[in-house]
Structure formats: structure tokens, C-alpha cells
Design brief:
Blueprint lengths: L1 H24 L3 E5 L4 E3 L4 E6 L5 E6 L2 E4 L9 E4 L2 E4 L8 E6 L9 E6 L3 E4 L5 E2 L4 E7 L8 E5 L2 E6 L3 E4 L8 E7 L3 E2 L3 E3 L1 E2 L4 H12 L5
């Protein structure tokens, strides 16, 4: 029993160290405002590189890496330190964005899809923490009022809404996947990936705390 308890303690210690290392590696992060992965053409979007050494926002299109300010429509993009704002985004600005530093650090990736169509699905571009609520919004470019929309995951119908919004109360890893929406007579959106992240070690530490520190290991 004591050997088993010692092994579990060692395992927890190793996992905590790995978690701390992962958090340190991911110290460079990129966020996007508004926080969504699909945009209509001519909308505005801003990227923020959150890192002390002020990294540069980069993007990749057709395997070519460029700075955000050098997008296809240069006059529409401006940078201030580690921020890049594209005042009028175009389809050619669709792609993968991240933050890179002179020291070689790289942030999380954010994928942006820009459409000239009439419907988009507004879902978070950055991972949603497990247990949080997330709302998917189906938007029509020409209609500002509530619309009836159908929502799909991997092409399978998962629900309808008369307001154009679908809320998942407590997301879990099983909710991760490709989503799209469709408006009757109004077209459908592209697919976007909804990513769900797990709180680092929280569940593991809670489930093991009793057996480790109260002698409850059998």
C-alpha cells in the first residue's frame, strides 16, 4: 500500500512539472478581437501578441509566411508593437495566424476564414475551457434581426434555433469538432473547428487528493 501511494505521489509530481513546463512554453499567446473564426469581407479584425518581448503577428497563406501587415491588401493593415489590425479583411486574408518572436518562440495558431457569401458561423477562434458555456451564432450579412437557423456537427443536424443562436451550457471534449450553420433560403456557412481545452491537472489532482493525503490507497 505504501509503495503504491509513493508511486502515485511521484506521478503527480511529474505531471505537475510537465504542466508547469507546458505553461512556460506556451507563454507566448495570440488572441483575436472579435473572438471568432469566420468573417464577412470588409469586416475589421485585430490580433494581439501577448508577450513581453513584443513578438510579430505572422500569417501563412499557400505555404508562404508573411507578417500580418503585409497581407494582400497592404493599406488595410496596420501594426503597433505586437498588435496587427486589418481594417478591411478580404478572402485572400484567410489563413493561419500566430505570434512569433525574435527568440524563436511561437504562440498558438488561430485560423481565420473570410467569405464573400451571405452566412457565417460565429464560433470562438481560441479554445474554450471545458465546463464553460459557449454560444454559436449564425449570422446573415443582410439581416440584423433574429433568424431561424439549423446547426450541424460533422454534417449531422444537431439542432435548430429561432434566434440564430445555439448555446452549449457546459462544453466537454466530446463537443469538439467541425460545426456549420444553415439558414433556410439564405445559404449556409463554412465549417469551423470548435476546440475545447482541459484545465491542467485539475480533475486529476482533485480525484487523487484524498487517496494521497488521507491514506486512502488500497
Amino acid at each position: 500500500m505504501e509503495v503504491r501511494a509513493l508511486c502515485i505521489r511521484l506521478l503527480v509530481t511529474v505531471l505537475i512539472l510537465l504542466c508547469a513546463h507546458a505553461q512556460k512554453v506556451d507563454a507566448v499567446s495570440l488572441r483575436v478581437v472579435p473572438n471568432k473564426s469566420q468573417f464577412f469581407e470588409h469586416e475589421s479584425v485585430s490580433f494581439y501578441c501577448e508577450e513581453i518581448s513584443h513578438g510579430h503577428v505572422l500569417y501563412k497563406k499557400n505555404e508562404e509566411v508573411k507578417e500580418c501587415k503585409k497581407t494582400s491588401r497592404k493599406p488595410t493593415a496596420s501594426t503597433t508593437g505586437s498588435q496587427c489590425t486589418i481594417d478591411r479583411i478580404y478572402r485572400s486574408d484567410s489563413g493561419e495566424y500566430w505570434c512569433g518572436t525574435a527568440g524563436g518562440k511561437r504562440s498558438n495558431n488561430i485560423y481565420i476564414t473570410v467569405t464573400a457569401g451571405s452566412v457565417i458561423l460565429e464560433s470562438p477562434a481560441v479554445p474554450v475551457m471545458e465546463g464553460e458555456a459557449v454560444t454559436l451564432r449564425c449570422r446573415n450579412k443582410m439581416l440584423s434581426s433574429s433568424i431561424t437557423a439549423d446547426f450541424y456537427k460533422y454534417g449531422r443536424h444537431i439542432g435548430s434555433s429561432s434566434t440564430g443562436n445555439m448555446t452549449i451550457g457546459r462544453v466537454s471534449k466530446s463537443d469538439e469538432g467541425l460545426y456549420k450553420c444553415k439558414i433556410s433560403g439564405g445559404g449556409e456557412s463554412s465549417e469551423s473547428w470548435l476546440s475545447v481545452s482541459l484545465p491542467c491537472l485539475t480533475d486529476f489532482k482533485q480525484s487523487c487528493s484524498m487517496c494521497l493525503f488521507t491514506g486512502g490507497v488500497n
